[in-house]
């Protein structure tokens, strides 16, 4: 039985800056006091912490308000899908530079009722007028802040489909926690402040964005309360009218008008290219259920996101290659990632005929595995031939030209949620760049995405990721759920552009091959090899492993931070372990429903 009256906790900022929640006295649907096991029931403080262990349900997101919104839904009897939509909408308020209703994303869901894994593709689409050459010759930086890069939003359709198929709450109910956070406000933390500061120049170039995020001309100060009443009103109307308000109605018309004629601040010298989006593109949008990808790794079934994401196929192929090797360490992790990226770049996109089955076959993995030697292979590794005919050791084709890679930022966000029935959600949501395309829809309180910059700009004959009418740009998002003997074992995911794939893979290698616990596996320093000459690595990774790996031919380029993962593991003794980042992106928030059985 679901409590339809979702009420939210009060955020309290303590001296010293830590944020906690106290819960006003709430009644359960039947009017009973809340279970005494819940920390909030006793007015207990709920603190932002990276690891939580317990029972009955677990949540990990990058943000305490969003985790709390999800936990409140679970506590009232909602399931993991209900909680995921509530948390995603809340992230649109508190993490608006990574997530929002005008973005897109991928949900992977383990349904405990039938033991099946489902996925929902809410990826943005290109307008019908977009062709393979629409982005050609446009400087990447210019596309980032433009109407042209805004894809047709997918999140709203995805939320509605997820609730309709698997949820128990109405759309309006699921939006309620976000409406409350947007209305009453939340405390600006360092990450929020820094993300505005990093975007200040382009935010200032749009009247609507400057008005919302640069009040008084400067980023909101840390520790102050930030309210977004316009977004609260947007969510309220959306809840009442449903997604049609966006896909066929007034909100959609306003999005199209903003994309076509961005509200550029008078006097700005920025060249802001208009977009190609039409109301008919919005009306044509569908969120889609797709079969998940699946590979088996040492007896565990690893489920991921199929195209248009390359997350599931690339993580899956790399795991298959690792399994075919005699031993697995960090060298093997980097080399298999290199090979899997070579194949991803050549074969995966939103096109018919992606050879998914072959890319994920053991035969192909074995053929690829024999290219892994004692030393790092030459760059770039050529793509393999996932054609169904495999030799134990086919010599590598000559190296092709090194692929140019767009910069990978820390944008996007990932959450994991489990419910009392054993349902599990792994969900990546994004507006692409931190701050999306930088353009707030006037009066509506949300930023537009710039997801279409994930297309290959071209010219690039034969590239499966060139833009096209109605096409979804290839993603790297890799929400992942692992089952063992048909029961959930863990879920994991991360933001970080193409580094999402390597972060998920590295966490699994850390956990399964390097003897780490899940909290250790997330906290460990990261490196990301994506078939480029240099491997990006966090300074601590280079300090710890650089000498040994450099001796084997790896070349590292330091990068301050890779990813911001969240995970949950079902521990052997029946406890749930929710895990978020201890440090990266300001640290995340893990919560469990009950600390005791
Ligand atoms: N647009 C990216 C992707 O789908 C996600 C955003 C990011 O993390 O860069 O791969």
From TrEMBL:
Enzyme Commission code: 2.3.2.2, 3.4.19.13
Look up the signal peptide feature and give its range.
1-27
* GO MF, one example: glutathione hydrolase activity
The UniProt regions of compositional bias labelled Low complexity, in chain numbering, are 396-411
Q: Which domain of life is it from?
A: Bacteria
**Keywords assigned:** Acyltransferase, Hydrolase, Signal, Transferase, Zymogen
Q: Where is this region: Disordered?
A: 28-47, 377-411
Keyword flag Cell inner membrane: no
Q: State the Pfam families in the record.
A: G_glu_transpept
Q: Which InterPro entries match?
A: GGT_bact, GGT_lsub, GGT_ssub_C, Ntn_hydrolases_N
Looking at the UniProt entry, the stretches that span the membrane are none
Q: Does the keyword Hydrolase apply?
A: yes
Family affiliation: Belongs to the gamma-glutamyltransferase family.
The identity of this protein, by name, is Gamma-glutamyltranspeptidase/glutathione hydrolase
Organism, scientific name: Streptosporangium sandarakinum
């Amino acid at each position: 039985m679901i409590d339809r009256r979702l009420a939210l906790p009060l955020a309290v900022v303590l001296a010293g800056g830590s944020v906690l929640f106290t819960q006003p006295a709430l009644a359960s649907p039947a009017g009973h006091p809340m279970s005494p096991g819940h920390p909030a029931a006793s007015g207990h403080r709920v603190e932002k912490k990276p690891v939580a262990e317990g029972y009955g349900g677990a949540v990990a997101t990058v943000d305490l308000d969003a985790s709390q919104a999800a936990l409140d839904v679970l506590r009232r009897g909602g399931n993991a899908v209900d909680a995921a939509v509530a948390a995603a909408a809340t992230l649109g308020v508190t993490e608006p530079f990574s997530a929002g209703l005008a973005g897109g994303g991928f949900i992977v869901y383990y349904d405990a009722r039938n033991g099946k894994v489902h996925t929902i593709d809410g990826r943005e689409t290109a307008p019908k007028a977009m062709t393979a050459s629409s982005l050609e010759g446009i400087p990447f930086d210019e596309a980032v802040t433009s109407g042209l890069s805004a894809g047709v939003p997918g999140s709203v359709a995805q939320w509605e489909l997820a609730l309709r198929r698997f949820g128990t709450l109405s759309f309006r109910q699921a939006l309620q926690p976000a409406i409350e956070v947007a209305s009453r406000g939340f405390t600006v933390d360092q990450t929020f402040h820094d993300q505005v500061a990093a975007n200040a120049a382009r935010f200032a170039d749009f009247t609507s964005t400057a008005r919302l995020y640069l009040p008084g001309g400067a980023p909101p100060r840390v520790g102050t309360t930030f309210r977004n009443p316009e977004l609260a009103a947007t969510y309220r109307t959306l809840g009442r009218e449903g997604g049609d308000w966006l896909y066929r109605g007034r909100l959609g018309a306003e999005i199209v008008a903003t994309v076509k004629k961005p509200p550029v601040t008078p006097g700005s010298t920025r060249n802001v290219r208009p977009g190609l989006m039409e109301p008919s593109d919005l009306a044509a949008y569908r969120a889609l259920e797709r079969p998940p990808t699946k590979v088996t790794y040492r007896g565990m079934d690893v489920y991921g996101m199929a195209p248009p994401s390359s997350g599931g196929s690339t993580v899956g192929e790399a795991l298959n290659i690792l399994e075919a090797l005699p031993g697995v360490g960090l060298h093997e992790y980097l080399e298999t990632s290199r090979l899997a990226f070579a194949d991803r770049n050549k074969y995966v996109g939103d096109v018919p005929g992606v050879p998914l089955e072959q890319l994920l076959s053991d035969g192909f993995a074995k053929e690829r595995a024999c290219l892994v030697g004692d030393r790092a292979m030459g760059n770039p590794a050529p793509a393999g031939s996932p054609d169904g005919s495999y030799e134990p050791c086919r010599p590598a084709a000559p190296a092709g030209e090194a692929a140019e890679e767009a910069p990978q930022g820390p944008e996007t966000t990932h959450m994991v949620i489990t419910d009392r029935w054993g349902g599990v959600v792994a969900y990546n949501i994004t507006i692409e760049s931190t701050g999306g395309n930088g353009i707030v829809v006037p009066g509506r309180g949300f930023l537009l995405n710039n997801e279409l910059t994930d297309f290959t700009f071209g010219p690039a004959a034969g590239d499966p990721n060139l833009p096209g009418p109605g096409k979804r740009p290839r993603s790297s998002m890799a929400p992942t759920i692992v089952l063992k003997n048909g029961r959930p074992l863990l879920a994991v995911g991360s933001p970080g552009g193409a580094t999402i794939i390597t972060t998920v893979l590295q966490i699994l290698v850390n956990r399964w091959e390097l003897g780490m616990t899940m909290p250790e596996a997330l906290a460990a320093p990261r490196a990301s090899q994506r078939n480029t000459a240099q491997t990006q690595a966090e300074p601590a990774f280079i300090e710890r492993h650089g000498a040994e790996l450099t001796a084997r031919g790896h070349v590292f380029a330091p990068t301050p931070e890779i990813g911001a993962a969240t995970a949950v593991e079902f521990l052997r003794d029946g406890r749930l372990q929710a895990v978020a980042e201890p440090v990266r992106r300001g640290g995340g928030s893990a919560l469990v429903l009950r600390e005791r059985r």
